[in-house]
Specification:
about 300 residues, mainly alpha, globular
Length: about 300
Amino acid sequence: MQREKMGLLLGLVGVICFSLTLPSTSIAVKYFGTTVVGLGRTVVAAFLVAIVLIVRKEKRPSLRQFKSLMIVAAGAVLGFPLLTSWAMDSMSVSHGAIESALLPLATAGFAMLRAGEAPSLKFWISSAVGSLAVIIYAVHLGFGRLQLADLALLAAVMILGLSYAEGGRLAKELGSWQVIAWAIMIGAPFFIIPVGLNVTPEMIHAPIQAWVSFIYLAVVSQFLAYVAWYSGMAIGGIARVSQIQYLQPFLMILFATVFLDESITLFTMIIAVIVVFSVILGKNAPVLKKGVVSNEN
């Protein structure tokens, strides 16, 4: 019981930390730009990760594991941070929270496919309902059409979903937080030059809230939040702890209201409830091995 409580507590800490990612990105990107915020956070996180890996004397991944880590890095340390940084430069946090709420569903879908399973009709219906709600919301805010920022954020969700699914599979043999740690170490060397080329002397004069937001993204969002999240699931059980993730879009909206003074409409909350409800149904939908016929009505 104590282990389960500790797992739930760590999972909640991870979700709260992740919920502050979009608000922090929205603040930092206005002063540092997309490339520095999107890729620079990984460069900074790499120094912390390197210390942890050296102190713990972690075993280096095998060549086969390295290939999987490349997929994790492509989503968690490249695609998602860069695309969300670009999107949050012109999108409200509450808007981003609605679209990122599809992440658990995307992760579940890719996890099924990677495991050779065929998602059930219930899963596809839930996915369609959640996706349609997000599109209606985005089109409503975009005055009749999807904006490029919407497409970027939805692409980020899909890429990170694949990354999470691959990371979850790899964590069984490499370790939970070690997956994101090694993914950071893989991506960071490639990001140093583009980040360096986009750093300007004026950035040193950015306000304190911009620097706090960037440091938060680098130290917490990019690494420590993953440690809490993966450790929580390892201790308290993946199925039970992962349910806490349904709180994330509502926490994002709350933080947007508190820290960014965003006004939240009833329409936004209704869409959030619809999306989260569809994600819950989709994640709990039965799955079958490919080639097996379902007995569902």
